[in-house]
Structure formats: structure tokens, C-alpha cells
Specification:
By secondary structure, this protein is an alpha/beta fold. About 25% of the residues lie in helices and about 30% in strands. The protein is globular.
């Protein structure tokens, strides 16, 4: 095996983050780690935003957070995975030929999935499982509202919710995207980028409101999403692509409707905390991937050398579902 390999790095300044491809040493798996030859890796918006918490100004780091490939070798104490086995998982530096995965994060790939599909799952769907199941307590028959539903997390939330048996309302600035998501199971699509969807949500839910909100947009729609919640509703904040980090909160509604507000982020979690949700995810959602009920929606696959173009496509907000970088051959 080669001693060096190509790896994409992100160089962050106070107001920008640039990408460059470097040749670096192939990492050695330590205790509890697997070395994986990556065939595909998924893009996630947050890792490219300076000041988001994932990327700090003045830093340079290998970029990429989730991928799929084949096991090359393992460190001390690793059992259950053999060289050549197809695996997927969250891993730092996923936009590389080789990367290390924590044994607690590694999942065997279902046979039905391609590497590109598998690379779209580990981070995005684990976040969705956290939002919908672990914290959101979403049940069959309940209503879910997803703002900005055409994003990678939004589409995954739709798919997971339908597998659970819930009904889904989604907002998007593109009617075309909403129409495409009807084929994935979207029950009600609301074409808007503004905080003006309360009436349509209430009409769809017979005036009761939704049981769970997934807000991928941010502060500009926060007050409106609170208005849309039913009694004992839950509200997940998972992103703020609008850049608005503050919003009014209706404390009377929070009190009277017995609402639960929670955030979904791995930024301050320890490795143990991040890994803790993996077994439940495998038990709750992996059967749906294995039998084909959930197939990740991929917008576009880019060659390994075109990460800059892949990032630009993501930031143009034209995509529907995940953008994937194909592994370096």
C-alpha cells in the first residue's frame, strides 16, 4: 500500500475558507480504529462555513465528515470487520483516499446500497435519527414540518419520517423541488422562503398544528415555526442557513402548549457521546436501508478532483438531496 495519499484541506481566514489538495502520509489505525479506503464521501454545508463552530478562522484541517469504502486494516482491539469489507461511517478527513473510522462509528454497508448512497447516510441520517427519534419522539400518524426541506438533512428527515409512518409538510423556495419530493412521500409542500406558512400548516393539520418541527433555515422562520406547533409539540433547531442567529420567542406559547425546544449538533459532544446513538440508529433505521424502503436521494456526484465545484454547487442552493464526492481511484 502507498505511504502517501491525496487529501483535501480547508484553510480558513476571518471571512473565507479555501480548499487545496495536498499529498499527506497515510494514517495508521490506532486502538479501536479502522483504516478505510474511501470510495465516496458526502458534503455537509456546516463544515465549509467559517465561524459555524466546525471551522474556526486561522485554522487548516483535512475536510470531510462522512464516507463509505472498504476496510484496509485495523488497530488493536478491533473485531468484527475484515479487510475488504464494505463499510460506512462518520470520519474526519473523509475527502481523502484513506481515512480512519472509530470502531464505534463504523457500520456495515447494506448490500443494496452503492458507495455513493452509503456515503450519504452516516452523518445526515444519524442527525435525523437524533432529531426525529431520540429527541423528537416522532410517532406514526403524527405531523412533521421541515423548513428548507430540499436540503440534505431535509430530504433525509422526510424519508425517515415516512419510514416511521408520520405525515410530512415541507417548505422550499422551489415549487419544482417540492413536486419532486412528492415522489419521495411529501404530503404537503408549501412554496415559500418567508415566514408565512402558518395558515397553510394549520389547514393541513385541521387546525391542530404539527407535532414536530425540524428547522434547517434559522432565526428568520423561528417564530413562525413555534406558531405552527401543536400542544406538546417539539422543535428541533439543526441549522441556520439564513445567518440569523437570534429570534423572538413566544414564552406564553412555550408555557401554555407545553412545548419542547432542542438543538441538534455534535459540536460540543465527546467521541463517546457522538457514538452513543449509533446502535439505536442501526436498530431503528438500518432495516429500512437494507430492504430498500429508504434510498438516499443524491443530487449530483462529483469526481474527487472537483470538490471546489461540488462546494459551489451546494452553496448555490440548487441541489435536491445530497452532493457526493466520488473517491479518488
Amino acid at each position: 500500500m502507498e505511504n502517501r495519499h491525496p487529501s483535501w484541506f480547508l484553510q480558513a481566514t476571518s471571512d473565507d475558507a479555501t480548499l487545496d489538495l495536498r499529498e499527506v502520509a497515510v494514517p495508521e489505525p490506532g486502538p479501536g480504529q479502522l483504516l478505510v479506503r474511501l470510495h465516496a464521501a458526502g458534503l455537509n454545508r456546516g463544515e465549509f462555513i467559517v465561524g459555524h463552530g466546525l471551522t474556526k478562522a486561522g485554522t487548516s484541517k483535512a475536510v470531510g465528515m462522512e464516507g463509505a469504502g472498504e476496510v484496509v486494516s485495523s488497530g488493536a482491539g478491533v473485531t468484527g470487520f475484515a479487510p475488504g469489507q464494505r463499510v460506512m461511517g462518520r470520519c474526519p478527513g473523509a475527502f481523502s483516499r484513506f481515512a480512519l473510522m472509530d470502531l464505534r462509528e463504523v457500520m456495515a454497508m447494506p448490500d443494496k446500497l452503492s458507495f455513493e448512497e452509503a456515503a450519504s447516510i452516516p452523518l445526515t441520517f444519524l442527525v435525523v435519527h437524533d432529531m426525529l427519534v431520540l429527541q423528537g419522539k416522532l410517532k406514526a400518524g403524527e405531523w412533521l414540518l421541515v423548513t428548507g426541506i430540499s436540503s440534505g438533512v431535509g430530504v433525509a428527515a422526510l424519508q425517515a419520517a415516512k419510514a416511521i409512518g408520520a405525515k410530512v409538510i415541507g417548505t422550499s423556495g422551489s415549487q419544482e423541488k417540492l413536486d419532486k419530493l412528492k415522489a419521495v412521500g411529501l404530503d404537503v409542500g408549501i412554496p415559500t422562503r418567508k415566514a408565512d406558512f402558518h395558515d397553510a400548516v394549520m389547514k393541513a393539520t385541521d387546525g391542530k398544528g404539527v407535532n414536530l418541527v425540524v428547522n434547517t433555515v434559522g432565526g428568520s422562520v423561528f417564530a413562525e415555526t413555534i406558531r405552527c406547533l401543536a400542544f406538546e409539540g417539539r422543535h428541533a433547531t439543526v441549522g441556520y442557513v439564513d445567518g440569523q442567529l437570534k429570534a423572538e420567542i413566544d414564552i406564553q406559547a412555550l408555557h401554555a402548549k407545553r412545548l419542547t425546544l432542542f438543538g441538534v449538533s455534535n459540536k460540543q459532544r465527546t467521541a463517546e457521546q457522538r457514538a452513543a446513538g449509533v446502535p439505536a440508529f442501526v436498530a431503528d433505521l438500518m432495516p429500512a436501508f437494507a430492504d430498500g424502503r429508504i434510498r438516499p436521494v443524491i443530487d449530483r456526484v462529483y469526481p474527487f478532483g472537483e470538490l471546489v465545484a461540488a462546494r459551489a454547487h451546494m452553496e448555490s442552493n440548487q441541489h435536491l438531496g445530497k452532493i457526493v464526492l466520488k473517491g479518488d481511484s
